[in-house]
Design a protein that fits this description.
The complex is a heterodimer of chains A (about 350) and B (about 290). By secondary structure, chain A is an alpha/beta fold. Helices cover about 40% and strands about 15% of the residues of chain A. Chain A has 2 domains: about 170 residues, Periplasmic binding protein-like II (D-Maltodextrin-Binding Protein, domain 2); about 140 residues, 3-Layer(aba) Sandwich (D-Maltodextrin-Binding Protein, domain 2), CATH 3.40.190.10. By secondary structure, chain B is mainly α. Chain B has one domain: MetI-like fold. Chain B has a two-stranded antiparallel sheet with strand order 1-2. Chain B starts with 8 loop residues before the first helix and ends with a helix. Classes of the chains: A alpha/beta (about 350), B mainly alpha (about 290). At the A-B interface, α4, β6, α8 and α15 of A face α11 of B.
């Protein structure tokens, strides 16, 4: 009898590590995820939130908005966060980790993170790869332009930019710096060179706004991030998009972060694990033209041609010193307002 | 004569307490935090905040022509919008009071519509109307009146149109309320004594409408001073207002102390506008 009891005890102990997975029921609990609205929210609902709700019984609630709003929210709720997972831009993730707002990436907590291309989980988990290229008016550029072509006299004052601060703006400053023969560590040269393009036609608040004017030839070009642009190009015959070669397109990553001290850390890790899965990453690539970070994703030749999806392609891109760039944010915002918009 | 029933102080306190607690929690406390935060500073290159007293944020506003320029643009834009609203609302309010009759309720409802449907949708609608490829430029071009599009977005003209559309009800409503109290006989009496229509307006109607004009102007000026959505969208990043600067610093740069200082300066001008309005109203009260 003692032996049976002993075996039973041993069996129970050996099964113990499996017990949480078998017994976890998160019914009645809510995971709060901050992300962008539109197609990204739709894909996350379909491929991440839905399966997670089915698996755990928990409810996933989305907070939609810009990444700056989410960064503000994390800072404001530093001691008592209400958001569990947040999607941030490449330049915000290292800063968020440095400030202790997010949990450092760890494949022990999020197993799929081990499949992400090496070196990409910088601050948070790398969610998708996109590049800053040029959206241009085909009427004004019969051939796809290089960065340097934007500086031709006939295009002065015919650019459009995203509101600053943004990865588009920082990327364009870095390109201007390289056109001037330096890099982003020389902001005087970068701003002076970018100012040569003249004041923009507009700082756009939506892609439709800028594409309508670009399609009509009122805007010559705009530095834009590949994913959304490529998804929308079908609606505008007069607009092209190119990844320039000299310098290459600026690498931009969307990151997914686990908020530090959030109410539902386990659910947050499961959500991120699903977000990095082959299925979700493939959907991102096929539907949004966002390059997968999961090295196990396999795309057709045609699909692969529209996205950045290999370390070799990443190596060909212009990578900024984002830690330095983010430290300049306040100063550069003032300079952008005065030297670029205020011309 | 109907007498006011006696209400014990305890009962009064209990009745007022829920609203007072709510206001203290969601308005007074955050406002006090805003005041304190404006005297703190941000750690350079970080989102961290140094909770030590400094006047650096205010010195930056006063010492930087860009921010002073933004303040000046905001003030004169608000003044311009107030004037435009007044010019448009005066005849409209008077017409509604005197001639609308049965459709009066409907017209007042239509006037209020921009206030209740929020700022975003009407503003996005205006983008379609005012853009270089929009309805207005398209119509003018098709009539052969213009060859190149008129710049109606990304400038003061576009932002003013948007703000007037949004805040005209704030001028119309106080004016309707004031004009309703002016006996129509006054106008007839003045004209029977030989006054022209212009003189009637200048010497009779406008002075009697002044309380409504002051109240409406104050409301429109303050609303325009703090407007964010309309200048942000219709200004296309090229019309710098104080609210858009505060948003940029708070939500994008994450320099909350500086954004708080910008907010405090805006509040100072709101208080000054309110004070001026109160002084004018008191002056009018004494005169009557």
């Amino acid at each position: 009898m003692k032996r049976i009891a002993c075996y039973a005890a041993l069996t129970a102990v050996s099964l113990f590590p499996c017990l949480p997975a078998l017994a976890q029921d998160y019914s009645g609990r809510t995971l709060v995820v901050g992300t962008w609205g539109g197609d990204i929210e739709r894909l996350l609902r379909e491929h991440v939130a839905g399966p997670l709700e089915t698996k755990t019984g928990a409810k996933v609630e989305f907070l939609l908005g810009g990444s700056g709003d989410r960064m503000s929210k994390m800072v404001a709720e530093r001691n008592n966060p209400t958001m569990d997972v947040t999607f941030q831009n490449i330049y915000e993730a290292p800063a968020a980790l440095k400030e202790g707002l997010v949990v450092a990436p760890d494949a022990a907590l999020v197993p799929t993170a081990a499949n992400v291309w090496a070196g990409m989980n910088d601050g948070c988990y790398a969610m998708s790869l996109v590049g800053l290229g040029i959206a241009y008016s085909k009427a004004l550029f019969p051939e796809a332009p290089e960065w340097a072509d934007l500086w031709k006299a006939e295009f002065k004052g015919k650019m459009a930019y995203a509101p600053y601060p943004s990865s588009e703006g920082d990327g364009m400053l870095a390109v201007a710096a390289r056109i001037a023969g330096v890099n982003e560590h020389d902001p005087d040269a970068a701003f002076a060179k970018l100012a040569e393009l003249g004041a923009p036609v507009l700082s756009y608040s939506s892609l439709d706004e800028v594409f309508t004017l670009m399609d009509a030839g009122e805007i010559a070009a705009a530095p834009m991030i590949s994913g959304y642009v490529l998804s929308n190009l079908g609606n505008y015959e007069g607009i092209g998009f190119v990844f320039p070669k000299d310098p290459g397109p600026v690498l931009v990553r969307d990151m997914v972060c686990q908020v530090a001290n959030s109410p539902e850390p386990e659910l947050a890790q499961m959500f991120i694990d699903l977000a990095l899965s082959v299925e979700t990453q493939t959907a991102y690539a096929k539907e949004l033209n966002f390059g997968p970070t999961n090295s196990k994703v396999e795309l057709t030749e045609e699909e692969a041609g529209r996205v950045i999806n290999t370390p070799e392609e990443v190596a060909s891109l212009l990578q900024l010193d984002w830690s330095y760039v983010i430290e300049q944010r306040s100063d550069w915002t003032d300079r952008w307002n005065k030297q670029i918009l205020g011309q | 004569m109907k007498q006011t029933p006696d209400i014990k102080p305890t009962a009064t306190a209990l009745l007022v307490a829920p609203a007072a607690i709510l206001m203290f929690g969601v308005f007074v406390l955050p406002f006090l935090f805003l005041v304190v935060l404006s005297f703190w500073s941000q750690v350079p290159g970080s989102v961290g905040i140094v909770p030590g007293f400094t006047l650096a944020n205010y010195a930056r506003i006063i010492g930087d022509g860009y921010y002073l320029g933004g303040l000046w643009t905001t003030l004169w834009l608000s003044g311009l919008v107030t004037l435009l609203c007044l010019v448009l609302a005066l005849p409209l309010a008077r017409w509604i009071v005197l001639y609308a009759k049965r459709s009066k309720g409907l017209l007042i409802g239509l006037c209020i519509l921009p206030l209740v449907c929020g700022a975003l949708l009407p503003t996005l609608g205006l983008v379609n109307l005012l853009s270089p490829l929009g309805f207005i430029n398209g119509a003018l071009k098709s009539m052969g009146l213009i060859k190149t599009s008129l710049p109606l977005l990304g400038n003061i003209a576009g932002v003013s149109i948007g703000l007037v559309q949004a805040f005209l009800p704030l001028m119309i409503l106080p004016l309707i309320s004031t004009i309703e109290r002016i006996p129509h006989d006054y106008e007839k009496a003045a004209m029977s004594l030989g006054a022209t229509r212009l003189v009637v307006w200048r010497r009779v109607l406008l002075p009697l409408m002044l309380p409504g004009i002051v109240a409406g102007s104050l409301l429109v000026f303050c609303a325009s001073l703090t407007a964010f959505v309309t200048p942000q969208i219709l200004g296309q990043g090229k019309v710098v207002t104080f609210a858009s600067l505060a948003y940029q610093q708070a939500a994008m740069v994450l320099d909350w102390p500086f954004a708080s200082a910008l907010g405090m300066v805006m509040l100072l001008f709101l208080a000054l506008a309110g004070l001026l309005g109160a002084l004018v109203s008191r002056g009018l009260g004494r005169r009557t």
